[in-house]
């Protein structure tokens, strides 16, 4: 699997289908209108390309972020201390934090219980920030490895995911399950089981559009089938675009028909939280810096979501 946010956060050490939804639909009726947000990870990739460290001077980095006109920030968090350091900087730069990305490891019992407690301790610290969505992508067995989780491990992970979601719900937050491409291996059994074996009122979906597209062999058909199956559980979209399979510097026209995706979500009355994550990879074009690219991103997303 190519480089992704989950691998970076862990290594850096820096900071059911719609028919099963009788009483819970996270749509515009019960989701306040969040501003367009942006995840920290794509900024990390832009900064790395320029030989800079996003975290070396987070105050200056967030000033750069705010200069684009984007007013909401989705950080990757590992500890309560990360939250404590971040809150005053968000206030200084007038940035909100509707959602956060938190790592978890849930496929083994003991490790899963520790991970749940870590996420909940972070959630408790987030009460003062009005954060409503906690995104998590349960860790694989090995970073970059090809080993799939066993059925026993998938069952344990689903139980822990559901438990975590139930506890976050008590705190007024929604748990959003996120994937990269690895969960789409082996007929997508990890991806599907996490949604089929958890309660919709406890576990929603953060659809990382391009990772699902890439994980399905660059298939838009597979992507839209997942929207048909689980669209009512989508509370957040991670937005990224490619051309001929290569991540671009800016979010715009490309391999994925985002205008059609927005149309499909509107048809089922789902209005998710929109989070830009236009990351770079080795073969991406190199024509502009992070702030220039994100100004373009914000304009295009604003247009297609109306």
Secondary-structure map with pairings?
Layout: H1 5-12, E1 37-39, H2 40-49, H3 58-66, E2 72-74, E3 76-77, H4 80-92, E4 99-102, H5 109-125, E5 133-136, H6 151-170, E6 174-177, H7 185-196, E7 203-208, H8 209-215, H9 220-230, E8 234-239, E9 242-243, E10 246-247, H10 258-267, E11 273-276, H11 290-305
Parallel strand pairs: 1-2, 1-11, 3-4, 4-5, 5-6, 6-7, 7-8, 8-11
Antiparallel strand pairs: 9-10
Helix pairs in contact: 5-6, 6-7
Characteristics of this structure?
306 residues, alpha/beta, TIM Barrel, nine-stranded parallel β-sheet, two-stranded antiparallel sheet
Structural features, described:
There is one protein chain. By secondary structure, the chain is an alpha/beta fold. The protein has one domain (5-15, 23-305): Divalent-metal-dependent TIM barrel enzymes (TIM Barrel, Alpha-Beta Barrel). The protein has eleven helices and eleven strands. The strands form two sheets. A nine-stranded parallel sheet has the order 2-1-11-8-7-6-5-4-3. A two-stranded antiparallel sheet has the order 9-10. Strand 6 (174-177), helix 7 and strand 7 (203-208) form a beta-alpha-beta unit. Helix 5 runs parallel beside helix 6 (151-170) and helix 6 (151-170) packs parallel to helix 7. The relative contact order is 0.15.
CATH domain class: Alpha Beta
Counted beta strands? 11
For the biggest sheet, the summary is: 9 strands, parallel
Helix share, percent: 40-55%
Question: What is the CA-CA span between the terminal residues?
Answer: 34 Å
**Integer tally of domains:** 1
Instruction: Using the 3D structure, state the CATH architecture.
Output: Alpha-Beta Barrel
Structural class: alpha/beta
- Contiguous low-pLDDT stretches (5 residues minimum) are 11-30
Shape: globular
In which order are the strands of the major sheet placed? 2-1-11-8-7-6-5-4-3
CATH topology annotation: TIM Barrel
CATH superfamily: Divalent-metal-dependent TIM barrel enzymes
- Number of helices, counting only DSSP H or I runs of 4 residues or more: 11
């Amino acid at each position: 699997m190519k480089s992704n946010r989950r691998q970076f956060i862990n290594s850096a050490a820096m900071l059911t289908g719609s028919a099963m939804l009788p009483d819970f639909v996270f749509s515009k009726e019960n989701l306040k209108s969040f501003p367009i947000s942006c995840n920290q990870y794509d900024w990390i990739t832009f900064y790395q390309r320029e030989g800079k460290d996003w975290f070396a001077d987070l105050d200056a980095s967030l000033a750069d972020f705010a200069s684009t006109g984007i007013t909401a920030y989705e950080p990757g968090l590992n500890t309560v201390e990360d939250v404590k350091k971040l809150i005053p900087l968000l206030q200084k730069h007038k940035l909100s934090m509707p959602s956060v990305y938190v790592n978890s490891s849930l496929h083994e019992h003991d490790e899963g219980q520790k991970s749940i407690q870590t996420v909940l301790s972070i959630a408790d610290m987030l009460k003062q920030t009005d954060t409503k969505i906690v995104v998590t992508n349960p860790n694989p067995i090995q970073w970059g490895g090809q080993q799939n989780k066993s059925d026993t491990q998938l069952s344990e992970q689903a139980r822990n995911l559901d438990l975590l979601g139930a506890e976050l719900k008590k705190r007024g937050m929604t748990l959003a399950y996120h994937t990269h491409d690895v969960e789409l291996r082996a007929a997508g059994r990890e991806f599907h089981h996490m949604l089929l074996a958890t309660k919709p009122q406890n576990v929603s979906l953060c659809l990382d559009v391009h990772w699902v597209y890439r994980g399905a062999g660059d298939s838009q058909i597979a992507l839209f089938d997942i929207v048909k199956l689980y669209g009512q559980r989508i509370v957040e979209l991670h937005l990224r675009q490619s051309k001929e399979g290569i991540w671009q510097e800016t979010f715009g026209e490309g391999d994925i028909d985002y205008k059609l995706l927005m149309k499909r979500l509107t048809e089922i009355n789902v209005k998710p939280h929109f989070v830009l994550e236009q990351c770079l990879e080795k073969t991406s074009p190199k024509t502009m810096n992070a702030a220039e690219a994100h100004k373009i991103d914000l304009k295009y997303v604003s247009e297609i979501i109306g």
